[in-house]
Design brief:
The protein is of the alpha+beta class. The protein folds into two domains: about 35 residues; about 80 residues, 2-Layer Sandwich (Alpha-Beta Plaits). About 40% of the residues lie in helices and about 30% in strands. The longest helix has 20 residues. The model has no long low-confidence stretch (mean pLDDT about 95). The structure holds nickel (II) ion. The site of nickel (II) ion has 4 residues, from strand 2.
Length: about 140
Amino acid sequence: MVKPGVARISISLPPTLLENFDQVTSNIGYDRSKAIQQAMRDFITEYQWEYDPLTRLAGTITFIYSHEVPGLETELTAIQHQFPKTISSTTHIHLDHHCLLVVVVNGPAKEIKVLASKLQSLRGIHQLKITSLMVE
Ligand code: NI
């Protein structure tokens, strides 16, 4: 439930941290409030699956893998078939020696985490990143 209006807070932090934060914020054209809101959303989605596993998130699981590892493509397909409600779509891009797969996800935070963990555990996956965004 989104409440209207704004909440004002006061926080304590090391001066150097604030200086660095303001520098980065200014460089990307954000004001301090907008930057802190985005940082808070990132923090929440990073840990939300642990304490609120049913919260709905939307995002992507992006990874690079070697298509030459025997059986890997079959395992990738089998895992994706275990999450038909969570996976909205996938995009496969053929790179020089590897493949890039972007799996668009939308569902309970825990499901997204479990799906990502299963994919990451496969041999031949080089790097995997989860992007999860708050739906509300
Ligand atoms: Ni490919």
